[in-house]
Amino acid sequence: MPVLGIETSCDESAIAIYDGDRGLLAHEIYSQIEVHRQYGGVVPELASRDHIRKTLPLIDQCIKDAGLTAAELTGVAYTKGPGLVGALMVGASIGRSLAYGWGVPAVGIHHMEAHLMVVMLEENHPEFPFLALLVSGGHTLLVDVQGLGQYDILGESLDDAVGEAFDKTAKLLGLPYPGGPELSALAEKGDPGRFTFPRPMVNRPGLEFSFSGLKTFAVNTFHKNDDSEQTKADIAHAFEEAVVDTMLIKCKRALKQTRLTRLVMVGGVSANKRLRKQLKDSLDVEVYYPRREYCTDNGAMAAYLGWLRLSTDQTEPLAIRVKPRWPITDLSI
Ligand code: KG4
Ligand code: ZN
């Protein structure tokens, strides 16, 4: 049952084919970094236009890489939300139309659920239930996961998502877009003792996060000091340390509250080296995360979740629909 997966929710056109018996047969990704870099962030209209240019050729390539013909595909999955409306519309229009043309079912999938489930493609993957930390450019969620589609949100960010805070802080330090990985690389050169940033919201009960104050703290620290490369690295270090520490504290709290014994971390920010190491080293539960290329947006997550959903006969009606805002707790079609 090879299923084609199409991910175009933001600035990556990513395609993959997943087969229930044979696993991942092919995956292709094209990143729009160069398109957006000169603007310092994603320009939605340019993102949509670039998806239009790249998606079909990548699908062609993927089918070839998998050694298949289009007639052998048994379903098409595409990201239906959350994400940029225009970008989503490109993937949904192409995906829904191809499925119609090929006479196979289509399914619109939830981007964050796809981030979550891709961890199951790893040899070392968790059993249900588990606690999940979903950290991306648009979301920061602590979720009690009892099974596929059984999600209870325990906490989320009240303002900036953690990836967004990384990106904004990186921008203020003059780093190129996308800032998260750049800031993290710079943080490695930072002096650990020079600055200490606050750990937001840890002194009050609850599992909510807030990262916008940390970003302001970084701006103020930057303005009070010289703008040498070393100072920037020291600020990056203090920022990353505070973010990671805050997430660790909240994960510990959520594990204690739920008595869950497994933690899964997914989404773009889960590619962060310090976060991966710290959670593994400091928690006395089993910690799982995907390989780094499956943390940031990719096609494998769309194809795999699509295959899972199509296996349970969940299909999209004959309409092209997207949900730019879509809570993971409301997966009804
Ligand atoms: O999941 P993702 O690729 O796209 C969304 O669904 O948003 O996540 C992108 C986010 C960006 O904010 C990016 O800066 C951040 O993940 N990110 C990182 C790292 N790699 C990606 N943040 C910190 N450290 C990293 N190594
Ligand atoms: Zn994502």
What does this structure look like?
This protein has 333 residues and is of the alpha/beta class. It has two domains: 2-116 and 294-330, 2-Layer Sandwich (Nucleotidyltransferase, domain 5), CATH 3.30.420; 127-289, Nucleotidyltransferase, domain 5. The protein has ten helices and ten strands. The chain has helices at 33-37, 44-65, 85-102, 111-117, 162-172, 179-187, 212-224, 229-258, 273-282, 299-311; strands at 2-7, 12-19, 23-31, 75-81, 106-110, 130-135, 140-147, 150-156, 262-266, 286-288. The strands form two sheets. The protein has a five-stranded mixed β-sheet with strand order 3-2-1-4-5, with helices on both faces. A five-stranded mixed β-sheet has the order 8-7-6-9-10. The protein starts with a strand and ends in a 22-residue tail after the last helix. Zinc ion (ZN) binds at residues 111, 115, 136, 267-268, 297.
List its traits.
five-stranded mixed beta sheet; 10 helices; 333 residues; globular; 10 strands; Nucleotidyltransferase, domain 5; alpha/beta; single chain; binds zinc ion; binds 5'-O-[(R)-(carboxyoxy)(hydroxy)phosphoryl]adenosine
Number of helices: 10
Strand content: 15-25%
Helix content: 40-55%
Structural class: alpha/beta
Mean pLDDT reading: 97
Topology as H/E string? EEEHHEHEHEEEHHHHEHEH
**Which stretches are low in confidence, meaning pLDDT under 50 for 5 or more residues running?**
none
CATH architecture of the largest domain: 2-Layer Sandwich
Radius of gyration: 20 Å
- Tell me the distance between the termini: 22 Å
The main β sheet shows up as:
5 strands, mixed
**CATH domain class of the largest domain:** Alpha Beta
Which ligands occur here?
5'-O-[(R)-(carboxyoxy)(hydroxy)phosphoryl]adenosine, zinc ion
Which of globular, elongated, flat, extended, rod-shaped describes the shape?
Answer: globular
Q: Say which CATH homologous superfamily of the largest domain is assigned.
A: ATPase, nucleotide binding domain
